[in-house]
Every structure is written in C-alpha cells, then in structure tokens.
Amino acid sequence: MDRLEFLKQMAEKAEKLYDLAALHFWTVYGLYNAQTHQRFLDLFLHELPPNSHLLSAGCGAGRWDGDLLNAGHSLLGIDQSEGMLKRAREKFPQVEYRQMKLQEMDFQAEFEGATCIDTLEHVPPEAWPVILKGFHRALKPDGLVYFTVDESEEPWKLQASFERGRLLGLPVVYGEVADRVDECYEKFMRTNGIVPDELSDPAVYHFHPALQQVKQWLDETGFAVEKQGRGQWYAHFLVRKK
Question: Strand, helix or coil at 240?
Fold first, then answer.
C-alpha cells in the first residue's frame, strides 16, 4: 500500500471513530486521571497575559476549554471531528469552533497561547514539523504552547506492532501503532460507541515519537522548551516561541 493512501485512510477512520465516540465523551471517554495535565495547564495559564486569545487545537469535545475560559481568556477551538465539535458547542456556546485538521492551520500571529492536549498521538511523523510551524505562525511573539506526547506504549510493544504491521503489508515506520486498526475499527463502528479500552485504543492510528526527536523538531521550528514533565501515559511540554 502507498504510504500517502495509508495515512489518508488512517485519518478518515480516526475522524469517523471520534464522531461516534463523541456521543459518550462527557460520560465515558472524557473522564480519566489527569493530575499532571492539570498541573501543566495551570503553569501555562500562569504565564499568559490577562485576557489572552487562545487556540485550543485538537480540542475534541472541549474538555479543557472550560479552564481556559474560567481564567478570563477567549479562545478558538479546532478539531477534525465534527461530532466532537458538536459536543463542544453544546458545552461552550460562547466559543467559536471550526472543523480543521492541525495540518491545515493557517493563522498568522493571532494568539498569545495554544494548547494541544492528548491529540498529537494521532499525527504521523511527516506532519509534526508542519504542525509545529503552524503553531509558530499562529502565535504572537513570545507565545506559549502546551502539548502532550503519548508515552503509553513500551518499546517492546512498539517493536512488536511495527513488525506485525510490516508483515501485514502496511507502510509503517517505527513508533506507529496501526496493526490492529482495521480489525478493531470495524468492531468499534458496529457498536453504539461504548467499548472497552482494549478495543477503542487499537481501533485508531497512533504514533509515539521519541522525545529527543520531538525536541529536535521544536528547536528546528523555533520553540524553546520552558518546562517538561511526565505523568501517567503522557509527556508534557510547555514551549515558547523564540
């Protein structure tokens, strides 16, 4: 299979899966332990000027948007899943939400800060530099971004998934987990959107970059890391536009 076609199929399936999962976001999927997320979000908010305009990128159903609004800021939310955006609009009707992929960001110096929380795990390696450049353009001078990187997979599992994907004829690179997407996606889409984690997680494409690679992309794009930490499943980055 051609890699471009493979990535296109993965993105389309992810969008449809999240459209269905959105029905139960505020009762099932949006509820998990996120103490480190909250700590880094508080650090992000502490560094912002008053009354900032923020970009909530990959906002999903808006789980963290209430924190941004309660801190006195305005925001624009973007996500590729219209189903998720529908839930966000129901929850926060005062916010403008647009259906937009991270790779499609074309903002120019509009925001003092941006968040991208629990989203980048669905982005292939080719898109990381594009997205980081999009954030860099979108921010005003000295703007901040808080984002997370999925570290939930152990190295031996990544290797096993890579090898299985290759055996299946998938044009995967190391760090991508897609070997069970076709199998689990079909099962997920035949449900009402409520499934156990062992089915929902492998039903959507994931990419787990090495943190050193993330730092290299950040440096090449023009971001300086101000704070980095780890929590359950995720690495957390607070970075500033140079």
Answer: strand
Q: Please report, to the nearest 10 degrees, the dihedral formed by the alpha carbons of residues 84, 80, 70, 235 taken in order.
A: 110
Decide: pTM greater than 0.70. yes
pLDDT digits (tens, 9 = 90+) for 137-161: 999 999 999 999 999 999 999 999 9
Q: Pick from 121, 128, 109: which is nearest to 220 by CA?
A: 128
**Residue 181 half-sphere exposure toward CB, CA atoms < 13 A:** 25
Paired with 223 in beta bridges are: 241
CA dist., res. 17 & res. 11, Å (int): 10
CATH architecture of the domain 32-152+209-241 equals 3-Layer(aba) Sandwich (3.40)
The token pair at 214 is 């993330």
List, for residues 25-62, the tens digit of each pLDDT value: 888 776 777 899 999 999 999 999 999 999 999 999 99
